[in-house]
């Protein structure tokens, strides 16, 4: 029960410590963000005046910050703000303040530390092969995979409990891995590492600022950028955790180290495509016994590893009539595949845009330069870079023009009936395509033939399900080669 009548009395000592903790936090944040710069002099009286606390509180707060290395206390001199290199950079409060003030910098530092420690910890855990560690790692990996595909994970409110559970299991997985190394110094780093893990999903989750349906958030730009946490965990990340857990269980030190390295590469923009990372993972997989996984996970694991290791990254064209959701699906798919995204409409020459805005349908002749420009963009996409691009590609002859540029092109047709497409286009306010031309697109539409490399997906499905189905089909396509 709650209410004032049921509140327990708070002792003066507890109240003092609570107030002191607030002063420590506020003053610590000021130092970290530069509000109290290096060599700035702090006195007890100044702290009392600024925060409205008693002299004992001010002294206790300064002593706490001295222990964290943010200030230096000297008799008759008082407190002096210290340079960053003097701070206790593994102190949980200091990490939290830095994540609050400069999250990109702190996440980069923590990730770089993880990249040094966790692969080595994975190797040592596999060599040790503790029964308890193996049991816990494999259990956590299976639970994470199950939670990651829960339909509600990406829903801001309905999925809160699921994300919390996933976050806790993910933290337990990495703590267990460090403990499995049997290195007490590695284990000492578990709290900073867990704080980095939690920050990505608590503060950096791509769905955090969306009120209703999840819409795609494009990946951060720049090599080696630490990615925002996606709207739901990437499937490849879950399979890499599975591989790491069972590599430790099988006592495969090289494979365990390679899986751990790949897990960390996955959160970096473009790093998972690094040939060195892939070569090490390929070498680990040569030792790994996929049949050692539970039967229910074997095919999914093998598909995921085949897609990662053996694939040329063929361009994917998201096609269909206006209003089918090409841009939404294309952006989300590109982010999940970690490849560039291009909006095909931007390749239209100006006269095409003018025609559409005036309600004039495009014919083969007017579409030709547009398709040629899209084909040119596909042609320069490297096999390791990949590309997702939108294009209505209504007729087979249009798709053939794109295949001339890249014979390995994969088409994803988002199928939608005419009434729904018309309603969607009519509801748009920032696009040059008028609803009056939707009917003409259906007149031109030639769905994918059986001999064309691609797939058809119901455009009314949630974007995440669509993207998951495309991932599955791309993996099958690679395994058939």
Outline the structure in words.
This protein is of the alpha/beta class. The chain has 20 helices and eight strands. It has helices at 12-33, 44-51, 55-67, 92-101, 103-128, 131-148, 160-180, 184-188, 190-202, 235-249, 253-266, 275-287, 295-309, 326-337, 350-357, 364-379, 396-405, 418-426, 438-444, 463-479, and strands spanning 41-42, 71-74, 78-81, 316-319, 341-342, 388-390, 410-415, 454-458. The protein has a five-stranded parallel sheet, with helices on one face. Strand 2 (71-74) and strand 3 form a beta hairpin. Helix 2 (44-51) packs across helix 3. The protein is globular and about 85 Å long. The termini are far apart.
Assess the beta-strand content as a share of residues.
5-15%
Strand order of the largest sheet: 5-6-4-7-8
Percent helix, as a range, is 55-70%
The averaged pLDDT comes out at 86
Which residues form runs of ≥5 with pLDDT under 50? 1-17, 210-223
Shape: globular
What kind of sheet is the major sheet? 5 strands, parallel
Number of strands: 8
Q: State the secondary-structure class.
A: alpha/beta
The radius of gyration computed from the alpha-carbon positions, rounded to a whole number of angstroms, is 27 Å
Number of helices: 20
Give the termini distance in whole angstroms: 64 Å
Order of helices and strands: HEHHEEHHHHHHHHHHEHEHHEHEHHEH
Write the layout of secondary structure elements.
Layout: H1 12-33, E1 41-42, H2 44-51, H3 55-67, E2 71-74, E3 78-81, H4 92-101, H5 103-128, H6 131-148, H7 160-180, H8 184-188, H9 190-202, H10 235-249, H11 253-266, H12 275-287, H13 295-309, E4 316-319, H14 326-337, E5 341-342, H15 350-357, H16 364-379, E6 388-390, H17 396-405, E7 410-415, H18 418-426, H19 438-444, E8 454-458, H20 463-479
Parallel strand pairs: 4-6, 4-7, 5-6, 7-8
Antiparallel strand pairs: 1-3, 2-3
Helix pairs in contact: 1-3, 1-4, 2-3, 4-5, 4-9, 5-7, 5-10, 5-11, 6-7, 6-10, 7-9, 10-11, 10-13, 11-12, 13-20, 14-20, 16-17
């Amino acid at each position: 029960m709650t209410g004032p009548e049921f509140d327990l009395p708070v002792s003066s000592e507890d109240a003092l410590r609570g107030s002191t903790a607030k002063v420590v936090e506020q003053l610590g944040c000021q130092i970290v963000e530069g509000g109290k710069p290096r060599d700035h002099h702090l006195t007890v009286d100044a702290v009392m005046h600024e925060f409205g606390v008693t002299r004992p509180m001010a002294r206790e707060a300064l002593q706490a910050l001295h222990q964290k290395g943010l200030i230096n206390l000297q008799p008759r001199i008082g407190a002096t703000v210290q340079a960053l290199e003097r701070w206790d950079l593994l102190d949980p409060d200091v990490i939290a303040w830095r994540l609050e003030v400069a999250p990109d910098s702190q996440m980069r530092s923590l990730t770089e530390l993880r990249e040094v420690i966790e692969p080595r910890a994975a190797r040592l855990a596999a060599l040790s092969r503790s029964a308890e560690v193996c049991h816990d790692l494999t259990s956590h990996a299976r639970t994470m995979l199950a939670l990651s595909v829960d339909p509600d994970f990406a829903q801001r409110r309905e999925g809160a409990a699921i994300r919390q559970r996933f976050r806790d299991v993910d933290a337990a997985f990495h703590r267990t891995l460090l403990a499995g190394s049997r290195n007490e110094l590695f284990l000492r780093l578990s709290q900073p590492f867990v704080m980095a893990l939690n920050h990505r999903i608590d503060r950096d989750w791509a769905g955090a600022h969306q009120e209703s349906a999840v819409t795609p958030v494009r990946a951060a730009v720049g090599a080696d950028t630490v990615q925002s946490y996606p709207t739901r965990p990437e499937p490849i990340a879950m399979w890499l955790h599975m591989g790491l857990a069972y590599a430790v269980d099988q006592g495969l030190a090289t494979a365990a180290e390679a899986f751990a390295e790949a897990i960390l590469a996955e959160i970096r923009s473009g790093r998972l495509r690094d040939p060195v990372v892939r070569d090490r993972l390929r070498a680990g997989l040569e030792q790994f016994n996929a049949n050692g996984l539970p039967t229910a996970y074997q095919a999914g694991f093998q598909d995921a590893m085949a897609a990662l290791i053996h694939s040329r990254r063929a361009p994917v064209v998201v096609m269909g009539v206006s209003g089918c959701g090409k841009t939404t699906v294309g952006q989300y798919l590109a982010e999940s595949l970690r490849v560039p995204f291009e909006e095909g409409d931007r390749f239209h020459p100006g006269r095409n845009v003018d025609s559409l805005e005036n309600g004039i349908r495009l014919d083969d002749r007017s579409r030709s330069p547009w398709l040629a420009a899209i084909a040119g963009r596909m042609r320069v996409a490297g096999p390791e870079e990949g590309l997702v691009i939108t294009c209505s590609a209504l007729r087979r002859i249009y798709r053939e023009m794109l295949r001339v540029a890249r014979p390995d092109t994969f088409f994803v047709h988002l199928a939608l009936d005419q009434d729904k497409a018309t309603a969607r286009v009519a509801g748009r306010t920032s696009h040059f395509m008028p609803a009056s031309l939707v009917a003409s697109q259906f007149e031109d539409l030639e769905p994918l033939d059986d001999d064309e490399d691609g797939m058809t997906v119901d455009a009314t499905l949630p974007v995440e399900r669509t993207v998951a189905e495309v991932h599955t089909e791309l993996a099958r396509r690679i395994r058939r080669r």
